[in-house]
Specification:
371 residues; alpha+beta; Glutaredoxin; seven-stranded mixed beta sheet; 11 helices
């Protein structure tokens, strides 16, 4: 009886301890205005933060931890944000509104310490890149656009000024991931490796991962990046499952019913996608007897997906995944930008890949393809 009681008490204490694990942030930002509103975002969680003067405090149980956590501030001057990598832990955040997105870290956080180290490693390069970007923008505003692409963004030797910066940052980040791949933050950086590193580099990272982390979502994502080739014309589609706008699970292969399929990749974070939405919705309605038009929302916020569906007139097939850009589907298709449209013939073979939306031109291409 005593043994049973002891086991019960041990379980109860353990359960209570787990239930009490929350992210607790106390902070102060010099220059925080009275009208400012603060928000904390992580995944699909969003909470407004209570503040008093320049001080603020919040307690929130992160559903997924440790994870990237964003601090947004909205005031009369606009919006600013910065990010941390936090678990359900107690931390202190202090800084100034003058350099809000720079040099701010979560003190006492073993999770955010690695993120901050990674930030410092490429800080000088990123600041230099900001200056170069400003320089290029000034030339563009002066109408001196002829040489901007060559001088700043040339992808072959001689490399553009910004291209050099990007490549140096990539080298620093790769070395950091390589060293820290078996930490939560190191694995979280895998969501940013797509199109930055070679297949051999990605395979090397995959080989460094300890067996106990093989089934984490970041590693599963990396494995798919390595083992699925980039689709080209003539290749068969990659099957995937996703949720529709009503929450039902849909298997992509089941949408091939003797007709071609157009698969659109879009997001609310893309102005061109928003512009295209009502037009592609109208087009989908016009050609519905000849082709099945499917929109895949690439990000993970259901509310934003529903907003995009509204732009489509609440019509058509809308798919998404809670994992967003870390989903297996995202890894398989390796989409670089939005909007992107993949035309599949009735047998599921890639007939054409269209990147970007040009009003009128896109519709003409679709109708010409269907003739």
């Amino acid at each position: 009886m005593k043994k049973a009681t002891l086991l019960f008490l041990t379980f109860a204490v353990s359960t209570l301890s787990m239930a009490q694990e929350k992210l607790h942030i106390k902070g102060k930002l010099k220059g925080l205005t009275e009208d400012a509103r603060l928000f904390l975002l992580s995944g699909n969680q969003e909470e407004e933060i209570v503040k008093q003067g320049e001080n603020f405090e919040i307690e929130l149980q992160l559903i997924e931890a440790p994870a990237t956590v964003y601090l947004y501030i909205s005031d009369a001057s606009g919006q600013k944000n910065t990010r941390f990598f936090l678990g359900n832990e107690s931390v202190v955040i202090e800084g100034s509104m003058d350099n809000f997105s720079q040099d701010i870290r979560a003190v006492n956080s073993k999770n955010d310490q690695l993120r901050y180290e990674n930030y410092l490693a490429s800080r000088a390069l990123r600041l230099e890149g900001d200056k170069i970007q400003k320089e290029a923008m000034e030339l563009w505003q002066q109408g001196k656009t002829d040489s901007i692409q060559y001088i700043y963004y040339n992808q072959v030797e001689p490399l553009g000024k910004m291209t050099k910066i990007y490549k140096q940052v990539d080298q620093i980040d790769y070395a950091f991931i390589e060293k820290n791949i078996n930490t939560a933050y190191g694995r979280s950086m895998l969501q940013y490796v797509k199109n930055r590193f070679t297949d051999d580099q990605l395979k090397h990272l995959l080989n460094l991962i300890k067996p106990k982390y093989k089934q984490t979502k970041e590693v599963v994502y990396l494995d798919a990046l390595v083992n699925y080739k980039t689709l080209e014309e003539g290749d068969s589609f990659y099957d995937f499952t996703a949720l529709d706008q009503k929450g039902n699970t849909v298997e992509f292969s089941k949408l091939f019913q003797g007709k071609p399929v157009i698969l659109e990749f879009s997001t609310m974070h893309c102005g061109a996608c928003q512009e295209a939405a009502p037009h592609t919705s109208k087009l989908a309605e016009e050609i519905k007897d000849k082709v099945t038009y499917v929109t895949y929302y690439v990000d993970n916020r259901e509310d934003a997906m529903q907003m995009y569906y509204e732009l489509k007139g609440n019509k058509g097939i809308m798919l998404w995944n809670k994992e967003g850009r870390m989903s297996l589907m995202s890894a398989k298709y390796k989409i670089e930008g939005t909007p992107t449209y993949i035309f599949f013939d009735a047998q599921g073979k890639v007939a054409h890949i269209e990147v970007g939306y040009d009003a009128g031109v896109f519709e003409q291409k679709v109708k010409a393809w269907l003739k």
